[in-house]
Amino acid sequence: MTKAQIVTTLIDEWSSIDTLLADLPTEQWTAPTSLPGWTVQDVVAHIVGAELGLSGKQPPIQPDVSAYSHVRNEIGAVNECWVEWMRSQSPAEVLRRFREITATRAEALTAMSEEDFSAPSWTPAGQGTYARFMQIRVFDCWMHEQDIREAVDRRGNESGAGAELSIDEITLALGYIVGKKAKAPQGSSVTFNLNGPVNRQIHVAINGRAAVVPSLPGPATASLTMSSTVFTRMAGGRIPTDVGFDQTEPKGDRDLAEHVAFALTFTI
């Protein structure tokens, strides 16, 4: 994707979250989400904190965050420091901070040169480029918008550029998921049929190393048909795997299909 496409998609994603939050009743900001320990307000605070960090701000020190069972690593501890800092603030204040930092970041990203945008950078997926990092930001923000929508029962924005890019992000992990985590045997293949709101057919072949391929020479060893919503919620660990698998239509080698489904979660 070009810089313009990535930046536009990220800005549009922030706008969709803003629209969702704009008329959200105060009591719904305390609704629990599928993320352990986080309410709707905590999810918004996490997005705010991530963008504040990217703008050069340091998280306020919160010495007790490691006591939370959902904080499992250093990145999680940094995230929780921002969230903890905003827990005592009102929803209106957190929304103000969201609008302020996303406007600042939108301006900075738009003004950034192509050279700087393509420069080497750390990313949550390892060393990459700043452009790659911003693609991951789209995925993270889109997934968190869906966390909020699920918590307050307001479905929306499940298709379009943000959703498509997010499924691209999951697709990058499917070789590892099918080959390494699910231990699909050599010579086998798996097809994911996503039947909306985003429609995709994704093939993984295990020939030496498992990899996503454009097509297969014949029917897959196992296939899983599901909505793109179930696919993304399972990949993000947002719903129990057995619940997601119950909403999936497996064909072919059922044991392989089940192993793949139960290995699908990959986010930290």
TrEMBL record:
<dbReference type="InterPro" id="IPR017517">
    <property type="entry name" value="Maleyloyr_isom"/>
</dbReference>
<dbReference type="GO" id="GO:0016853">
    <property type="term" value="F:isomerase activity"/>
</dbReference>
<dbReference type="Pfam" id="PF11716">
    <property type="entry name" value="MDMPI_N"/>
</dbReference>
<feature type="domain" description="MDMPI C-terminal">
    <location>
        <begin position="164"/>
        <end position="258"/>
    </location>
</feature>
<protein>
    <submittedName>
        <fullName>Maleylpyruvate isomerase family mycothiol-dependent enzyme</fullName>
    </submittedName>
</protein>
<dbReference type="Pfam" id="PF07398">
    <property type="entry name" value="MDMPI_C"/>
</dbReference>
<dbReference type="InterPro" id="IPR024344">
    <property type="entry name" value="MDMPI_metal-binding"/>
</dbReference>
<dbReference type="InterPro" id="IPR034660">
    <property type="entry name" value="DinB/YfiT-like"/>
</dbReference>
<dbReference type="InterPro" id="IPR010872">
    <property type="entry name" value="MDMPI_C-term_domain"/>
</dbReference>
<keyword id="KW-0413">Isomerase</keyword>
<feature type="domain" description="Mycothiol-dependent maleylpyruvate isomerase metal-binding">
    <location>
        <begin position="12"/>
        <end position="149"/>
    </location>
</feature>
